[in-house]
Amino acid sequence: MLFAAHSGLRFLVLVGGLFVILYAAVGFFGKREYSSAMARLVSVFTGLIHLQVLVGFAALFVRPFSTILIGHIFLMIAAAVVAQFTASVVKRRPPEERSYGPHLVGAILAMVFIALGIMAIGRGVLQSTL
Ligand code: HEM
Predict the structure, then answer these.
(1) CA 85, 12, 75, 103 torsion-angle sign
(2) How many C-beta atoms lie closer than 10 Å to residue 118's C-beta?
(3) Spacing, Cα 73 to ligand 1 middle (Å)
(4) Which of 29, 47, 75, 123 stands the most exposed, by the fewest C-beta atoms within 10 Å?
(5) Which of these, 48, 113, 110, lies nearest to 74 by C-alpha position?
């Protein structure tokens, strides 16, 4: 059950990340004014990653532990840190100085870590073993 939630939640995280990348890319390359929708989208993405990390820790109790999981865990924590860090950096700026660039870079990096983290346990990014 926990493992199924963890496996399924991955798709929401990936979709959330894709939305952040697309929205930030349009804003950044189109030189648009920063919008509150960007901030909301980023909150959803970081929230989903944090939830996934929590469910992942819980899954450790119901799945057999193997050392290949260590890479998975470190890469996913790196993804959460990068996503949270870039979100916080932008949030701390005064509204007129907020920009799409950090969200774009942060979401791309987080998604790379997530893809590598899934592959670290021998699965394809969209592959499920359920
Ligand atoms: C963004 C964060 C994370 C994502 C997207 C993610 C994604 C995944 C995916 C796709 C699988 C394989 C599911 C399947 O085969 O159907 C998996 C397995 C697993 N993950 Fe994560 N994970 C994340 C973070 C974590 C963290 C932080 C932990 C633990 C602290 C963790 C623990 C596990 C465990 C125990 C398994 C089961 C491995 C097995 O028994 O085959 N995950 N994860």
Answers:
(1) negative
(2) 19
(3) 8
(4) 29
(5) 113
Q: Which of 76, 77, 78 is nearest to 120 (CA)?
A: 76
pLDDT of residue 125: 98
**Nearest Cα to Cα of residue 100 among 22, 45, 44:** 22
pLDDT at 53: 98
pLDDT recorded at residue 37? 97
Question: How many Å apart are CA 29 and CA 47, to the nearest integer?
Answer: 26
Q: How far is CA 7 from CA 2, 46, 50, in A?
A: 9, 17, 14
Block mean pLDDT (10 aa), the chain, length 130: 96 98 98 97 98 98 95 98 97 96 98 98 95
Residues with CB under 6 A from ligand 1: 3, 6-7, 10, 13, 49, 52-53, 56-57, 59-60, 63, 69, 72-73, 76-77, 79, 114, 118, 121, 123, 128-130
